[in-house]
């Protein structure tokens, strides 16, 4: 069709597939309000982010659509099909959404367009097709609301699952601390009893001072006791048991493991005998054994409390309580905190491998939301592998972007599924086992909020999700291209 004026006739409009089913009155209305505009090849028809004022229909030529990714134009489609359209396609929603251009259109060659003002396009749709408009409006807004509601549910379910694992992890050191405290109380009571027996007048002052010096040495040995192999430990306990029995100390098989655990041996016990004499050897050995056992128990309590404190710190790091939502963070701290939360969920036969590039700089980020990304990706990886496999968490750098990779040794993503993995509500899990929003949420957090990218590489036996984050501050939040798969 040749363009001879800045207007189209109703008959010319009917040749466009968008308008072919309209009646004469509707076509005349459009012809009166629309106009024909030309654009030279290489020029911009409209730009992403600008106010959406017009609806464009291609009459002749070719166009390319692009979207912004961290300041770069990424072409998403190119066509010369007559009748394709773009521009203010959501004008019918009015002030319920921001009326801006969602992408950029460029004329690839000299092109002609039928241009309709956005308010006229919106009026025509809402007046001529009220029922479809109600359906479209409900679909658009309903999907947006559903995403928000189900997204919150997804986060709550993930948090509940991780909380159960964290509770289990906290219970172990807490129970150990309670048990050690109970035993410690008995040992301290025993020490008081044995000390009374030793100091009832049978030892002179110098011998008692010597025994106290040996006690201090025993405490020092506990702090530096070497870790022995199971076989070496058994041999040392047998040797010490024989020595104690030869010197008339009863219950040697109970005392020897404690003394060996504290780093004491027969040569050291010989010093004890020399200090107190054979008559008081058993009381002195038992008193020193209580000392060693007390130190070991206090170390156990200290380790348990430290473990609890570490878990609490990890939980705070994960949830980012009392911290600014956007700040400069070390992604390794975030990854480690998330992995701590997952410890109770990682099967015994799944090996966790950390390959961190510790030379990476901190990055500006919404830390709590990045933790949600790691949670979704790690949870998917564990689900793909089942009870056995290797989970690899790797960090690195590509140009001015930091990369975080989550790799599993599961069966891979089937080719027919791969293009849909970032779609809202799409899931391959059984009914009730997933909402299909985990990757959609991750994509929106990484791309929309952090101006990064998320990609996937998959083959049987290996799937890698790669998150790219800008090391420096990105541009303001805005629309972005689709994820790369």
Automatic annotation (TrEMBL):
Keyword Secreted: no
The UniProt record lists the keyword Phosphoprotein: no
Pfam families to which the protein is assigned, alphabetical: cNMP_binding, HATPase_c
Catalytic activity: ATP + protein L-histidine = ADP + protein N-phospho-L-histidine
Record key words, sorted: Kinase, Transferase, Two-component regulatory system
Domain Histidine kinase: 307-473
Enzyme Commission code(s) on record: 2.7.13.3
InterPro entries: cNMP-bd_dom (IPR000595), cNMP-bd_dom_sf (IPR018490), HATPase_C_sf (IPR036890), HATPase_dom (IPR003594), His_kinase_dom (IPR005467), RmlC-like_jellyroll (IPR014710), Sig_transdc_His_kin-like_C (IPR004358)
Molecular function (Gene Ontology), one example: kinase activity
Ranges for domain Cyclic nucleotide-binding: 18-125
Protein name: histidine kinase
Biological source species: Micromonospora vinacea
């Amino acid at each position: 069709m040749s363009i001879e004026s800045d207007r189209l006739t109703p008959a010319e409009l009917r040749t466009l597939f968008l308008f072919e089913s309209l009646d004469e009155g509707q076509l005349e209305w459009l012809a009166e309000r629309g106009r024909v505009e030309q654009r030279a090849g290489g020029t911009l028809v409209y730009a992403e982010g600008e106010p959406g004022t017009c609806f464009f229909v291609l009459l002749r030529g070719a166009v390319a659509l692009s979207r912004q990714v961290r300041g770069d134009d990424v072409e998403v489609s190119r066509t010369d099909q007559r009748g394709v359209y773009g521009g203010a396609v959501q004008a019918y929603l009015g002030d319920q959404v921001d009326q801006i251009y969602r992408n950029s259109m460029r004329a690839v060659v000299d092109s002609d367009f039928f241009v309709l003002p956005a308010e006229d396009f919106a009026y025509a749709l809402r007046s001529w097709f009220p029922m479809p408009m109600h359906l479209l409006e409900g679909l658009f807004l309903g999907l947006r609301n559903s995403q928000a509601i189900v997204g919150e549910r997804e986060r709550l379910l993930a948090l509940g699952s991780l909380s159960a694992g964290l509770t289990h992890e906290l219970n172990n050191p807490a129970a150990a601390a309670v048990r050690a405290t109970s035993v410690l109380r008995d040992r301290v009571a025993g020490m008081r009893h044995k000390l009374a027996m030793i100091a009832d007048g049978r030892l002179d002052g110098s011998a008692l001072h010597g025994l106290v010096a040996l006690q201090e040495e025993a405490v020092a040995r506990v702090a530096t006791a070497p870790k022995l192999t199971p076989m070496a430990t058994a041999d040392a306990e047998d040797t010490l048991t024989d020595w104690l029995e030869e010197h008339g100390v009863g219950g040697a098989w109970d005392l020897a493991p404690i003394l060996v655990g504290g780093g004491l041996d027969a040569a050291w016990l010989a010093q004890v005998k020399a200090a107190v004499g054979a008559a008081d050897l058993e009381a002195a050995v038992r008193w020193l054994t209580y000392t060693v056992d007390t130190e070991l128990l206090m170390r156990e309590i200290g380790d348990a409390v430290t473990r609890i404190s570490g878990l609490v710190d990890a939980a705070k790091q994960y949830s980012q309580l009392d911290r600014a939502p956007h700040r400069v963070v070390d992604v390794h701290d975030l990854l480690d905190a998330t992995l701590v939360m997952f410890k109770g969920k990682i099967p015994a036969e799944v090996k966790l491998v950390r390959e961190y590039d510790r030379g990476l700089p901190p990055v500006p980020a919404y830390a709590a939301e990045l933790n949600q990304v790691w949670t979704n990706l790690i949870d998917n990886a564990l689900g793909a592998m089942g009870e056995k496999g290797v989970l690899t968490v790797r960090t690195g750098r590509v140009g001015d972007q930091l990369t975080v990779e989550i790799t599993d040794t599961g069966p891979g993503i089937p080719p027919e599924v791969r293009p849909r993995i970032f779609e809202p509500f799409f899931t391959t899990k059984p009914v009730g086992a997933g909402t299909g929003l985990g990757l959609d949420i991750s994509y929106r957090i990484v791309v929309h909020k952090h101006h990064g990218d998320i990609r996937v590489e998959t083959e049987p036996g290996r799937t890698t999700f790669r998150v790219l984050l800008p090391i420096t501050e990105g541009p303001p939040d805005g629309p972005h291209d689709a994820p790369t798969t």
